[in-house]
Amino acid sequence: MGIQDRFCPKCGRPTKEDGVCVHCRLAGTPWFSCEPRVRCIHCPSCGALKQVNTWTDTDRERSSHAQDLARSAVHFHPDLKKPYLDIKINDLSTNRSRAIITVEGMLYHEPVRGTCEVEIAWQKEQCDRCNRISGNYYEGMVQVRAQERIPSPYEVQIVAAIACEIEESLQTGGERLSFISDVNEIRDGLDIVVGSQHIGLLIARRITAELGGRYTTHPKLIGEKNGRQLFRITYSIRLPKYQKRDVIRFKKRYGEIIQVEPRHVRVLDLSDGAIRAVKEGEIEKIVGNARNAEDAMVAFFSGTTIGVIDPATWATRECMAGSGLDVRAGHHVRILRDGDQLVVLR
Ligand SMILES: [Zn+2]
Ligand SMILES: [Zn+2]
Fold first, then answer.
1. Fewer Cβ in 10 A, N or C end of the chain?
2. Measured between alpha carbons, how far is 343 from 346 in angstroms, rounded to an integer?
């Protein structure tokens, strides 16, 4: 017997190493384990998934999620090298799927292979957000009103777009409770019901940044939870009396508003194209808003007088032409009406 000849104490086969042979070592090593059952809780209304008490939104298919769940049920021996899983999912019912898993790898330089089955239980539970929405729970209200007028359709559209955009970005960022549960258009403005104070604040800030005006906050105690006082906050927005692109009459001139400041407006003077500051007290009236201007064709242009074809009557009307206006017969201009007068915009 040579010095190289050693025998496994367990099975008696010749072996190159001390102690039990590789076959006996493999046989005695549970190299992988498999949980028999995993569960997945999802919200039937919005599809969000619950993982350890935390809800997250997902747009993944159930089948791709099943693969992950099955994978999470398998645990390897730390010595296993190059583990490889092949997972087949059979849907047994709407509540149950079975994963058939083949596990392969290298253990102590020997290939190993095994199989196991995992049952996936699909459970439904209403998520935190849907729960709040269906229970009419909300933390804030953004009230959009305007000073001495009602918000214009343009403003209402901008407000709605801003609210949606902020909700979208917060939801994407994982702030699930920053939702908008209702938008009500009422006679004198818009009420936006929001799930969190954070989204309410962001909406109020953005609206006033884009449309001018200001907001005030009004907290109201609505109860107590776990020793903490719960407030509902109303963000009361007051849009300014004047809007951007309003055309105003002041000191026998017309101007289109380009900026609304607290006590004055900046206008583009339609008579000479200059930018002027006009105090609120100097404003005689709002003629209209340039967004609602009509299109009219130029019949003639003499430098100081412009003839436009009134689209309502097809009659040619003479109007004051602002200096520096560069138009010719056949061109189109935009007009607003101040009583009988046509106001040509620049
Ligand atoms: Zn052996
Ligand atoms: Zn939900």
1. N
2. 10
Domain residue spans of the chain: 31-124, 136-239, 246-344
**Helices assigned H by DSSP within the chain:** 22-27, 62-72, 128-134, 153-172, 197-211
Write the pLDDT tens digit of every residue in 198-243: 999 999 999 999 998 999 999 999 888 888 888 899 999 999 999 9
CA of 320 from ligand 2 middle (Å) equals 61
Select from 66, 103, 104, 101 the least CA-distant residue to 87: 101
Q: Tell me how far the alpha carbon of residue 17 lies from the centroid of ligand 1, in angstroms.
A: 11
Best CA proximity match to 270, nearest among 338, 194, 189, 191: 338
According to CATH, the topology of domain 136-239 is Alpha-Beta Plaits (3.30.70)
Judge whether residue 3 has pLDDT over 60. no
Q: Name the closest ligand to CA 8.
A: 1
Strands 140-146 and 305-309: unpaired
Q: Which residues are close to ligand 1, an ion, with C-beta < 5 A?
A: 8, 10-11, 21, 24
Among 133, 146, 123, 195, smallest CA distance to 166 is for 195
Instruction: Give distance in angstroms: CA of 5 to centre of ligand 1.
Output: 14
Q: Per-residue pLDDT for 190 more than 50?
A: yes
> In what helix (H) or strand (E) does residue 317 lie, and over which residues does it extend?
strand 316-320
Rounded to the nearest whole angstrom, what is the distance from the C-alpha of residue 15 to the centroid of ligand 1? 8
Between 305 and 144, the more confident residue is 144
Lowest mean pLDDT among 271-280, 319-328, 334-343: 319-328
| Choice among 188-197, 257-266, 278-287 with the minimum mean pLDDT | 257-266
**CA–centroid distance, residue 278 to ligand 1 (Å):** 99
* pTM for the structure as a whole: 0.72
Q: Which ligand is nearest to the CA of 16?
A: 1
**Listed residue (248, 285, 288, 291) closest to 270, CA to CA:** 248
